[in-house]
Amino acid sequence: MRKIIAFGPALVVLVTALITLVAAPAAVRLVGYAGTDAQIRLAAQTLESDNVLKQIDRAVRSIADVVEPSVVHVSVEEAVMDQWGRGRRGVATGSGWVYDKLGHVVTNTHVVRNATRITVQFSDGRAADAEVVGRDADTDIAVLKVGTSEGLFPVGRASGLDLHQGDRVYAFGSPFGFKFSMSEGIVSGLGRDPQQILSSSGGYTNFIQTDAAVNPGNSGGPLVNVEGKLVGMNVAIATAPSRQGEGQNSGISFAIPLTTIERVVEQIVSDGIVMRGYMGIGRPGNDEMNRRELERLGFVGRGVAVTRVEADSPASRGGMQPDDVIMKIDGEVIGSVPALRSAIANKAPGEETKVEVWRAGKTVTVTVVLDRLITEADKGKAAVAAAKFGILDVADTDKGEVYVTRVQVPSAAYSAGVRPQLRVVSVGGTPITNLEGFFTALATNDLHQGHDVVMKLASREGEELVVTISGK
């Protein structure tokens, strides 16, 4: 009898297995899609119900609304020299911000250095011509004035508020010509050395370092805090240390702090010149040399060593001594050589300053009344100004006398009565005994800044003459 073989059950099992192999992955995918869909819906509900990020967005938008009307785009026509020494006209752009309702606008000196014409554009599209009120190359701060008093919205300033590493900041300006832009970052560092950033060898400020995007065109624009108040002014980018304002953002940019801006701008607006404080101390040339001095003295902490105290200086009159370590000036912590230089220079001459020093293991507070800082550059400018107005040459003697030896004819000095062989008795009331004192007195009385200077002269017969040299 032939055996009958049934294939039905096996076929069912095979078909079922095949269906399972095909359908199971699809089912798994469907389950996965359903899970992703549920995740999306849950996340969307969370975003809709949780308004933290919306609050942040609203706050940042409010910062833009508060600050942007105060920002200006600065367009400069300038006289430049080509590679063959031929003069030509160029165009440069930068940024600035409204300082007060009188029409003063603040920007960087390097933005308007060679300007023959300056135009500022406001965020509402208005444009106005501007003129330079004054410039301070050492801090790279310039003050302009526009010919309108309408529609001016000064930036709110965070005066007296401390800035800390990690604080959020916002930079405004016209990077690459994209006007009225805004970028966000944090304060990366404070008290940065200007000599490592700018091409000039001088500088009387400690820069704020930030990672807010700053590019060419941002120079002169405001840097504000989370309240939309000014904390600094954009000035340089780390990728272009040899020329301010060039290079592209690399997460390291710098701003001039508000304390420096206010002191410089107020002096320019009120007097047209900037005067700096002078204490009369020697200190290490850089922070590494300062570190070695502090180690020698056995001091642990933040401060700057005093290596020398000049005779008859504000420091000596206040009781400071060599090997003191300056820790604070008027409550401001002095943690570096640039910070010390800035803290002194940015104070006004005649200002009473509290200096907290470490002296042989003890903390002492001394009071120093600052004099005015007169630099060699100031004296050089005064000498140039004296020659411009007709005093071509002077000479001193071993008897402590200074004589005019050459006068241009005609000149302002000659018209005022200055003649060769007259002895210079005093300049601006200051007795003159040597050439150093003569040029220092001219600089102190700001002849090179356009101010009139009163000089007392005497003939060899003892006849005295008082003349006024016009700086105009």
List the helices and strands and how they pair.
Elements lengths: L7 H42 L2 H16 L3 E11 L5 E12 L5 E4 L1 H4 L2 E8 L4 E10 L4 E6 L21 E6 L7 E12 L14 E4 L11 E3 L5 E8 L15 E5 H14 L5 E2 L2 E2 L4 H11 L6 E2 L2 E2 L4 H5 L6 E5 L2 E2 L3 H9 L6 E8 L2 E8 L1 E2 L3 H13 L2 E6 L5 E6 L4 H5 L6 E5 L2 E2 L3 H10 L8 E6 L5 E6 L3
Antiparallel strand pairs: 1-2, 1-4, 2-3, 3-6, 4-5, 5-6, 7-8, 7-10, 8-9, 9-12, 10-11, 11-12, 13-21, 14-16, 15-17, 17-18, 17-19, 19-20, 22-23, 24-25, 24-26, 26-27
Helix pairs in contact: 8-10
Summarize it:
This protein is of the alpha+beta class and 472 residues long. The protein has helices at 8-49, 52-67, 109-112, 258-271, 287-297, 314-318, 337-345, 376-388, 412-416, 435-444, and strands spanning 71-81, 87-98, 104-107, 115-122, 127-136, 141-146, 168-173, 181-192, 207-210, 222-224, 230-237, 253-257, 277-278, 281-282, 304-305, 308-309, 325-329, 332-333, 352-359, 362-369, 371-372, 391-396, 402-407, 423-427, 430-431, 453-458, 464-469.
Description:
The protein has 472 residues and is an alpha+beta fold. Helix content is 27%, strand content 32%. The strands form seven sheets. It has a six-stranded antiparallel barrel. It has a six-stranded antiparallel barrel with strand order 7-8-9-12-11-10. Strand 17 (325-329) and strand 18 form a beta hairpin. Helix 8 crosses helix 10 (435-444). It is elongated, with a radius of gyration of 33 Å. The N and C termini lie far apart (138 Å). 37% of the residues are buried.
